[in-house]
Task: structure prediction
Amino acid sequence: MSKKTYSFEDYNEYNVLKIPFNLILTTLYLMKYFFILIFLPIAAKLPKMDHTFKAILPYVEQFAHHHANLLLLLPSVPAVMIMVGMFRRIPKTGTPWIRNSWAKGRMLLSASVIAELLLLVLFLLLGIKELNGLLIVILYLNAMVLLYLLRSQRVRDVFAEFPEYKAEEKD
Result:
């Protein structure tokens, strides 16, 4: 952990740094293809969700057909692992893969961004995708996310901490 001192409000009830909102947004952004290609189409087919998604479903389908590719799901996998770690970052978590992925979280998210950037550049070079405004925005956002992950001391410190494992005590 760094020599930077944090205030009392920066720590949660388990005495580890709280996950910054920017890191949560970054992880959700890196999961965008997971949501677009898997979650939203499934959710739109559920009963009572028809009215909720009826207005946005054409836009989601258009984006999925024109800008998404199943291969782009691969860079979302590390982000999904980190999101699971965000929800399971409690002392009762004894699962080794969650603890290990959390310890390598910054590297996993950076690899996710780099893999997506490489795939998008490859798609451009092969002519699978055209350079348009949306793709430029995605490339720009990926570059900003990568800079945030590499330069933020807070992100380093958050991924350096995970509450110590405490097995549940039986009465």
Q: What stands out?
A: The radius of gyration is 19 Å. Residues 95 and 165 are 9 Å apart (CA to CA).
